[in-house]
Predict the 3D structure of the following.
Amino acid sequence: MKTYIGIDNGVSGTVAVLADGFKIFSKTPVKNVQDYTKRKKRLSRLDAVAFDDILTQADPEDSIIVMERPMINPTRFAATESALRCHEAMLVLIERRGIPYMFVDSKEWQRDMLPKGCSGDDLKKMSKEVGDRLFPKFSDFKHPDRDALLIAEWARRKGL
């Protein structure tokens, strides 16, 4: 059975692993560390060890990772910087394990997985509602959406 890993990118995102009889849904593992600049500030970084532990669930010969493209918005520099830093760290670990991966735009998977006409704040609400219906096991999970689960399920339905 093929393993599908969906990644809703960023330090506030989620990771889902779908395989026959085996499912994981978790917040992207992060750690809070001192900023690497001279400022007295903290930031969230990918917890590489914990993320790599999730990747051990994937057999490179029979898995696919589908990652949502990271947010890049010049008017939100700090959020963009954080998303790209997380994205690059994930890619290093994924490539090191030799797991095939691809990128998907949010609009592409949302078109197939969410009700027509959703936009703005409704996207997160509908993601949670649809995700909880498809995966009731995770309905108590404390996160505002189920994007990674829906990305992995989208990939499974597409037969990627």
